[in-house]
UniProtKB/TrEMBL annotation:
One of its GO terms (cellular component) is ATP-binding cassette (ABC) transporter complex. It comes from Crenobacter luteus. InterPro entries: ABC_MlaE_roteobac (IPR003453), MlaE_Permease (IPR053408), Permease_MalE (IPR030802). Its main location: membrane. The chain crosses the membrane at residues 50-78, 90-112, 160-183, 203-222, 242-260. This is Intermembrane phospholipid transport system permease protein MlaE.
Length: 261
């Protein structure tokens, strides 16, 4: 009877210990990436190649999503502001919403879903097919050759993708507010220029996207490197990457917003 009552407690303790162990392993993994980044950056063409796969190939989903998010913001913003006679502030509403919150967060979620999952699957498959072990046998450090270029590619790509998302979102808001609804063109842009501050809005948004890029890419490469070398293990690691990245992005967004704004 006592064992039956204690079983859930044991299971909870096991999960807690495993979570702490994985957090410590991930921290050591990050230190290893930074330690061997010099070897990776010395062959910068590896990082450039990964920037293409992580960043350039993610442009379509970023551009299309940013455009439609901006258009939805324009429609909803106009509907709300017009009730209070403030429809002219639509440009400021769209820009501030995107630059401060929606741009970095949604771009990071899309990046995790598209590029992060691909990184995990690729590294996990290399582990399952013993390619990483073969590199160790040939005295090639797999962290310097495989992991570090993908990590820095994600860190470089994320702020750029977030900026493109913001630009397309503002353009989408312009299409709805000025082209479709008929707001004054000059008022739309002047209200936006007066409301947006370079440091508190633009720079802080870029800092958010940079932090999200580090977190998402670290989770992606860690899950791939730590994946069980089976088809089910790689599949589970890919799923964990997307889910964990989404939760970490939202948690970091709250923390960063509390400090910045």
């Amino acid at each position: 009877m006592l064992d039956t009552l204690l079983a859930p407690l044991r299971h909870l303790g096991h999960l807690s210990v495993n979570a702490v162990w994985r957090l410590g392993f991930a921290s050591r993994f990050l230190l290893a990436i930074l330690r061997f980044s010099g070897q990776s950056l010395a062959r910068f063409q590896l990082t450039i190649r990964e920037v293409y796969f992580a960043g350039v190939l993610s442009l379509i989903i970023i551009v299309v999503s940013g455009l439609f998010v901006g258009m939805v913001l324009g429609l909803q913003g106009y509907n709300t502001l017009s009730r209070f006679g403030s429809a002219d502030a639509l440009g400021a509403l769209v820009a501030l919403s995107l630059l401060r919150e929606l741009g970095p967060v949604l771009a990071a979620l899309l990046f995790a879903s598209r590029a992060g999952s691909a990184m995990t699957a690729e590294i996990g498959l290399m582990k399952a097919t013993e390619q990483l072990e073969a590199m160790n046998v040939m005295a090639v450090n797999p962290i310097a050759r495989v992991v570090a270029p993908r990590f820095w590619a994600g860190v470089i790509s994320m702020p750029v993708l977030a900026a493109i998302f913001n630009v397309m979102g503002i353009f989408g808001g312009y299409l709805v507010g000025v082209v479709m609804i008929g707001l004054d063109d000059g008022t739309f842009w002047s209200q936006m220029q007066n409301a947006v501050d370079l440091h508190s809005d633009v720079v802080n948004g870029l800092i958010k996207s940079l932090v999200f890029g580090v977190a998402v890419t670290l989770i992606a490469v860690f899950e791939g490197y730590d994946a069980t070398p089976t088809a089910a293990g790689v599949s589970g690691a890919t799923t964990r990457t997307v889910v964990t990245s989404a939760l970490v992005i939202l948690a970091l967004d709250f923390v960063l917003t509390a400090f910045m704004f």
